[in-house]
Write a structure and sequence with these properties.
The structure holds 3 protein chains of 3 kinds. Chain A is 38% helix and 18% strand. By secondary structure, chain A is of the alpha/beta class. Chain A folds into 2 domains: 205 residues, Rossmann fold; 113 residues, Rossmann fold. In chain A, helix 11 packs across helix 14. The chains are: A alpha/beta, B alpha/beta, C alpha/beta.
Chain lengths: 381, 221, 287
């Protein structure tokens, strides 16, 4: 087993000297997990995720992870990591696209069972005819599972967010799963400079008894969980139990806000927010928007950028305040349904100012020119 | 605006466009430039269209995904043009004014009158050279076709330095596990088995790259 | 479980539920009780909400009395009638979803192995026939293929009983049930044979008619799963509600099926498991 020194999360995230590596997003996953003191990982192949979990397997073989195996399908994998998390260990897995949909039944139960699982989602299309190409539509299906959802712009974000996700997820007052989302191919397969902490340090281990619910190890009380299984009955006590638990789970996500601010520097990142025209984007759409905004500047047009990093909890108040004076908020998206623009419309004043597009889907990247032409149109109005 | 060169590599699965893109990006990084590299492929394998995109700049690159408006187009196999095995039609769709095209072929690619006129309006330059033939003759394997293509690129554009590319090559094949895709990893092992020693592989690859220069021919429109 | 875990906090003793006080004072933890001791100690299962004459409830009671070390046993269940009983037991237990019990158990067992490498933490999967042989079959079989050190028990009432008596893969051929209005068109799934061929080191099918035999199968399954490999026990648990017989006839139904061999009892043990059991059972308290 490789020698690694346990360091405080703050040291890992900010103080530790960083080395620049020219690596893919999948390799950034490996480097994050290598330093995350993960006990167990379970894998299942699906494009464009497969490489990331191969590489996690490789570092298990090197001794950085204690247990690892390939499960039989995504539903089973998400079930297995749930069992492991209930047994009190730190777990990691990843999937994407149809794999996310196959496993969907598990995600709300992770949250309800208060499991601090970190799962990476590498998005791809889920429609028929079959596609393996990038598309963020699966995220729309996960918005109301209750889990925390972070969206990485690039491989650097992916590396940082995975490491930080463990620390955010495992806070006693939070203790719910974190999904770290990155756009398939555009992040997973793109080679870019990523600054990583030294490989000989790792995060502190998970403390199982910091969980707000009993660990299933017969070493902590209570082991008689309930006298009467009221949760399965149709009566007032049962309804009250379910309703209050669902609110508690929502509250847990709300309680993650200060930790997301502390570790990720906020739920959003903003540039040039006083501009009349703003662009709100997540994931690869942020990269394309940055390019479009730079092109607009060459033409003498100023536009601002809001990068959304946390979708759940949603930065509703921040967005409402930031967009208060904007003439238009352009929301470029890599999916057909425009779920991010719907989210934004729900929180801003005068939602007519939300420009629900441009959108690309089916696998193509979004030419920055498409965003640029929207910026031009609303800047002139 | 900062100078950014966008290179689109179109080939067939198994020809090494993914590897060539990686080595080029890695060499650019070694030369102190900024580069992003991403492959794009369908679920198909050998002989299916495969493309890689390399952006090289002096400044931070934000843009992701396929290159729609390239400055340089590299065609690894004549079938990319003759059978339309690429993601854009015609193969030079989106080429920027003054752009370059490098084509692997023993003879000049056949172009229609319309295509010639379009390329002339773009003030584009088209070069061809027998990359696969050189790979076989000098490197002893057609798997070095991508090396010949890189050699041609460096010869014509000087986009990266020879020391940069030598180091990048050593990093790529000199050990350390690299994963671009599972299939690429499998091909690595096949390639390595053809050489007794890694050093021999590196030397052969460099020899292939450097052999390209005198064989480059330009097509005029 | 470390010894001081089950201790009454004196300040709360007067407000603790009676059955909890009994569990602390006269429970089975660390005692090595078996089914022969039933009636003399506080059982792990409290009152349950299952139907009168429920064969499954009886089987759960017997299983709970057969555990070699209840103080270090975690149960993974699944959706169905048994999921109404498990919240009533005095063991930590998981209900995740319908059918994923063996996948959950795989993760749990490995996690407990990592955390308690020098201790046997028994992970016992107990689920119905629908959960085991139908919706969760891939995960059940893959846990066997992988050689997960789990004991899997099927409570086989030959139907989806909790949802109102629908046909399951374990229903007998020809049986008329909901969703099989003209009778089931295919044979009962031969899961014991499938288990044997899929890597299980110990396989048994039993009924609650002979409690000592059931106990022996459950204990063997748990013990073999500690050291040798996955194990499977299938227990016939007649359902008076959906098969429409009187609650008092449950054991007679099971006995009848044992007798006419429409529910064949069997035991498959690999030579390795046999040797392991022989060493263990040499001077054992039970059998």
């Amino acid at each position: 087993m490789p020698e690694q020194k346990v360091v405080a999360p703050e040291f890992m995230f900010t103080e530790a000297a960083r080395e620049e590596q020219f690596i893919t997003g999948s390799e950034a996953v490996r480097e994050a997990v290598r330093r995350a003191n993960v006990d167990m990982a379970v894998s299942y192949p699906i494009t464009p995720q497969s490489e990331s979990m191969h590489l996690v397997g490789d570092i298990w073989a090197e001794g950085y992870i204690k247990d690892y195996y390939r499960g039989e399908n995504e539903f089973a994998v998400m079930s297995a990591v749930a069992g492991a998390a209930m047994g009190g260990v730190r777990v990691f897995t990843a999937t994407g696209g149809p794999g996310t949909m196959r496993a969907l039944e598990m995600f709300p139960t992770w949250v309800g069972a208060r499991l601090p699982i970190v799962c990476a989602f590498f998005t791809r299309g889920i429609n028929s005819p079959l596609t393996i190409q990038p598309d963020t539509i699966e995220m729309a299906h996960l918005l109301d599972t209750g889990m925390i959802m972070l969206h990485a712009e690039d491989a650097q974000d992916l590396y940082d967010m995975i490491l930080k996700a463990f620390i955010i997820a495992e806070q006693t007052e939070v203790h719910i799963p974190v999904g770290v989302f990155a756009d398939g191919f555009f992040v997973t397969h793109t080679r870019d400079k990523v600054r990583v902490a030294p490989a000989d340090i790792k995060l502190p281990p998970y403390k199982p008894y910091s969980a707000p619910v009993p660990v299933m190890d017969m070493e902590n009380v209570p082991f008689r969980q309930m006298r009467d299984p009221f949760v399965m009955k149709s009566n007032y006590v049962s309804y009250a139990a379910h309703a209050s638990w669902q609110q508690e789970v929502l509250a847990a996500a709300e309680r993650a806000r200060p930790f997301i601010r502390q570790y990720l520097g906020g739920l959003i990142e903003v540039e040039n927010e006083q501009a009349d025209v703003l662009v709100l984007a997540g994931g690869t759409a942020v990269c394309q928007s940055r390019e479009a905004i730079a092109m607009a500047r060459e033409e003498g047009i100023e536009a601002g950028l809001i990068k959304i990093k946390s979708l759940r909890p949603f930065p509703g108040e921040e967005l409402r305040a930031l967009t208060a004076k904007a003439k238009a908020v352009i929301v470029p998206e890599f999916n057909r349904v425009g779920w991010l623009s719907r989210e934004l419309r729900n929180v801003v004043q005068n939602p007519d100012r939300v420009v629900a597009g441009p959108r690309v889907f089916g696998g193509m990247t979004m030419p920055p020119d498409l965003i640029l032409s929207e910026i031009r149109r609303y800047a002139r109005e | 605006m900062t100078k950014k060169t966008s290179i689109r590599m179109s080939g067939l699965g198994g020809q090494g466009v993914v590897t060539a893109a990686h080595i080029l990006g890695s060499a650019a990084t070694r030369d102190g430039l900024v580069s992003t590299v991403n492959p794009f492929f369908g679920a198909e394998k050998r002989l299916a269209p495969a493309e890689s995109y390399v952006r090289v700049s002096s400044d931070r690159i934000f843009e992701r995904g396929e290159i729609l408006f390239p400055n340089v187009i590299m065609i690894f196999h004549p079938h990319v043009i003759s059978l339309g095995k690429c993601y854009t039609m015609p193969f030079f769709a989106g080429l920027q004014p003054g752009g370059l095209m490098l084509v692997n072929g023993d003879s000049a690619p056949e172009l229609s009158q319309d295509e010639r006129e379009a390329l002339k309006r773009l003030d584009a330059k088209l070069y061809y050279f027998p990359a696969t033939k050189l790979a076989l003759e000098v490197g002893g394997t057609d798997l070095a076709t991508n090396m010949a293509m890189l050699g041609g690129l460096i010869e014509i554009t000087h986009i990266v330095s020879w020391p940069g590319i030598t180091d990048a090559l050593a990093e790529r094949f000199g050990g350390g596990k690299f994963v671009a895709s599972a299939t690429t990893a499998a091909l690595d092992d096949a390639l390595k088995s053809k050489y007794e020693k890694i050093s021999q592989l590196l030397e052969q690859n460099m020899a292939v790259m450097q052999a390209v220069g005198p064989t480059i021919k330009e097509v005029t429109f | 479980m470390s010894k001081p875990m089950l201790k009454m906090t004196t300040a709360f003793a007067d407000v603790m539920p009676a059955e909890y006080v009994e569990l602390v004072q006269n429970g089975p933890f660390g005692k090595g009780y078996g089914v022969a001791d039933l009636g003399s100690f506080k059982e792990l299962i409290e009152e349950h909400p299952l139907c009168a004459g429920c064969g499954l409830a009886l089987a759960v009671r017997l299983i709970m009395a057969s555990l070699p070390t209840p103080e270090d046993t975690v149960v993974v269940g699944s959706t169905g009638c048994s999921s109404l009983a498990f919240p009533q037991i005095a063991l930590q237990n998981i209900h995740s979803l319908f059918g994923n019990q063996n996948a959950v158990a795989s993760g749990l067992k490995r996690a407990l192995k990592l955390r308690f490498p020098d201790k046997h933490k028994d992970v016992l999967v107990v689920a119905g026939d629908g959960a085991t042989a139908d919706i969760g079959l891939d995960m059940v079989m893959h846990s066997w293929f992988r050689g997960e050190k789990l004991a899997t028990i099927m409570l086989d009432n030959e139907a989806y009983a909790n949802t109102g008596g629908q046909e399951s893969g374990m229903s007998p051929e020809g049986c008329v049930l909901n969703m099989a209005p003209t009778g089931k068109k295919f044979k009962k799934i031969a899961l014991p044979e499938i288990a044997r061929e899929s890597g299980c080191a110990y396989v048994a099918s039993v009924t609650p008619v002979q409690p000592r035999k059931l106990e022996k199968a459950v204990r063997r399954a748990i013990l073999v799963a500690r050291e040798v490999g996955p194990t499977y026990v299938q227990i016939f648990v007649p359902c008076p509600t959906n098969f429409k017989f009187k609650p008092q006839e449950t054991l007679a139904k099971a006995k009848q099926k044992e007798k006419d061999q429409t529910y064949p009892l069997r035991e498959f043990i690999t030579p390795e498991a046999q040797a392991y059991l022989a060493a263990l059972e040499g001077g054992g308290k039970h059998d």
